[in-house]
Specification:
The protein is α+β, with helices and mostly antiparallel strands. Helix content is 29%, strand content 24%. The chain has two domains: 52 residues, no CATH class; 79 residues, 2-Layer Sandwich (Beta-Lactamase). It has an eight-stranded antiparallel sheet with strand order 1-2-3-5-4-6-7-8, covered by helices on one side. A hairpin with a 6-residue loop joins strand 6 and strand 7.
């Protein structure tokens, strides 16, 4: 299994990013993570070189919490919240709050479809510029 797949599998299993030594030789894993970071396959925290994002999963608490099969994960954004459920191929529930008014909301996703059809997804940053500051985006 590739380093990328081992990393994602460990993230899904634990609900958090794995430590390098949990999935292989620490030096080899860290070198591989740097290559994956440079290829935009995951995001390393610049201060610690630990995983910050393994899209669609977030290693840090965010406003987007995804519940599925008795577990939960943080997503990086609203779009990634749907991505978590899609990647896992499961039904689930997304919890967050409206960025405009702050009201909390909860949204079920069944058979890869949102239970509500009145959703609006707004990106402040054009997609062509996301990787200029992916944490902000």
């Amino acid at each position: 299994m590739s380093l990328r797949n081992r990393t994602y599998a460990a993230f899904v299993e634990r609900g958090r990013p794995p430590a390098a030594e949990e999935i292989g030789d620490e030096d080899e894993v860290r070198a591989g993570w740097r290559q994956l970071h440079e290829a935009h396959a995951l995001v390393l925290d610049p201060a610690t070189a630990e995983i910050r994002m393994a899209n669609p999963f977030s290693a840090v608490p965010t406003a987007y919490r995804v519940h599925a099969e008795g577990r939960w994960w943080y997503a990086n954004c609203a779009w990634d919240a749907f991505g978590v459920l899609s990647a896992l191929k499961v039904d689930g529930r997304i919890e967050s709050s409206c960025p405009d008014c702050g009201d909390p909301y909860s949204l079920g996703v069944v058979e890869q479809r949102a239970e509500s059809s009145d959703l609006l997804f707004h990106c402040l940053v054009p997609a062509a510029h996301w990787w200029e500051d992916i944490v902000f985006t």
